[in-house]
Amino acid sequence: MIVGEQKPLDEIRDQISPFKKVLILGCGTCVTVCFAGGEKEVGVMASTLRMAGAVSGQEKEFLEATVKRQCEWEFLDQVAEQIASVDAVLSLGCGIGVQAIAERFPKVRVYPGLNTSFLGMPVEQGVWSARCAACGDCVLGRFAGVCPIVRCSKSLLNGPCGGSHDGVCEISPDIPCGWQLIYDRLEVLGLLDTLEEIVPPKDWSAGMGRGGRSIVREDLKI
Amino acid sequence: MKAGSKLEQALVEGRFAVTSEIGPPKSVDAEVVRRKARLLRDHALAANITDNPTGVVRMASIACGLMALQEGMEPIVQVTCRDRNRMAIQSDLLGAAAMGIKNVLCLTGDHPSLGNHPQSKPVFDLDSLQLTQMVRNMRDEKQFQNGEELNPEPRLFVGAVENPFGHPLQFRSVRLAKKVNAGADFIQTQLIFNIKRFREWMQEVRDRGIHERVYILAGVGPIRSAGAARFMRDRVPGMDVPEEVVQRMAGVERNEARKEGIKICVETIQELREMEGIAGIHIMALEWEEAVGEIVETAGLKPLPMRLAASVSPER
């Protein structure tokens, strides 16, 4: 899932400071599951902003709504009237949600309430961890299901570097060495010999840095 | 000869080679490089020029390499994957070779988060294995990384590094073999203080026959103080400084510490020299270049082959 966390309150207030009437729009999918931008967080955010507004003597109105998925226009259309009635939308969805609103409602001012952090999963209560870089050219098959692009700080395909020590990365004792994880998995599977092969340079063109990438499935088009 | 550098020549002829290291300045002060080159040129065959070590921005390694060359010190230009992609690295290498640089050392590079611009975007388009292979192919296959023809090609003696103390330990000799397969002509190792572990690694290296396919230069360096020993033990990624070394440094008077550091270094060199498969020594003095001459002389590594004539003009 997409994992995000709320921006600092000061930054949120700065962004929406010129507006009197703001819709705080949550999303019922990924950011609900990671407790960053679901219905509950929308409520808390609205109360916080109302209180902050009252303390500073500003007259502001905050509407609240949460759609099932901000990243699909048909769900956004369900709150079109509310969106049309405000000066700005504060989205508690991920970056995709913010952009979906901007594209669907060209005249609406929309601001992000979250920082979209990574594609990942919960690993324990209250802890989420990155698992995928959406590089567009999956190498998990070669590395026994552990992603070197995300789990290794240097995204090495022929690791580990010399900084791997006691299972942790050179940049922080809190970050497991992705290559130790790969090594351990391959050892369990009896596949360590596959590491003797030199993995060629990656085709990064399938991933970032190409403007808006798109997937077109002719079989699904109407 | 692949590149015809002094370093390659010495290694091919079976002479025990000594290389050292020059850290570029954090400014445009060229005299820093020139002074270090003059200090080292009678004690080492060639000197590494580090490439933004520990992720701290310093003068470009190729530019410093050219200054070293002008001072009569053969450079080994370090190239890391941290801040340049395959395009920038190739174009830099063409320039370096055109200006007369003949040795390169291919490294992954420290992560930017450890350096002085921690907010910068880490590149790591290639890793050190892929970099090594790319440089070898530029030379031997006359090919750019994309397969396009490269003519005339850069004649570079290709070095790589290995850390026998990195984890997982049992993979370290395998990774060395990979670097040799990728095209490394010579290897410099991480600083050796844990000689016992180094022996084990060298045994694995010999068992795999890797020492017959590559020149291995063992990394050493003098410790300046007990504090420096502790710092390296606790704070420098990939370093293995055993307790007895720290104790030895702590056990001498403060004003005797430097002497003790040099003594430990010389003893290490003597042990390494006896090991089968060690082709030379790489002395990393880390801003204590003055010590290198004493180390080389005390360890009996002289005489060195003739140094380069000063003011070497660019080739081609």
Question: If you had to describe this structure to a student in words, what would you say it looks like?
Answer:
The complex is a heterodimer of chains A (222) and B (316). Chain A is α/β, with parallel strands linked by helices and 222 residues long. Chain A folds into 2 domains: 2-118, Response regulator (Rossmann fold), CATH 3.40.50; 134-206, no CATH class. Chain A has 8 helices and 9 strands. Chain A starts with a strand and ends in a 34-residue tail after the last helix. Chain B is 39% helix and 15% strand. Chain B contains 11 helices and 8 strands. In chain B, helix 2 (30-40) packs across helix 3 (61-70), helix 5 (128-140) runs parallel beside helix 6 (172-182) and helix 8 (226-235) runs antiparallel to helix 9. Chain B is globular. The two termini of chain B are 17 Å apart. Classes of the chains: A alpha/beta (222), B alpha/beta (316). At the A-B interface, loops of A face helix 5 and helix 6 of B.
Could you tell me which chain pair has the largest interface and how many residues each side has? A-B, 27 and 37 residues
Identify the CATH class of the largest domain in chain A.
Answer: Alpha Beta
* Broad CATH class of chain B: Alpha Beta
Radius of gyration of chain A: 22 Å
Q: Estimate what percentage of residues of chain A fall within beta strands.
A: 15-25%
CATH architecture tag of chain B: Alpha-Beta Barrel
Number of strands of chain B: 8
Number of domains of chain B: 1
Low-confidence stretches of chain B: 306-316
| SS element count, helices of chain B | 11
Question: How many strands in all of chain A?
Answer: 9
Share of helix of chain B, binned: 25-40%
User: Which structural class best describes the helix and strand composition of chain A?
Assistant: alpha/beta
What kind of oligomer do you see? heterodimer
Query: Strand order across the biggest sheet of chain B?
Result: 1-2-3-4-5-6-7-8
State mean pLDDT of chain A (0 to 100 scale).
95
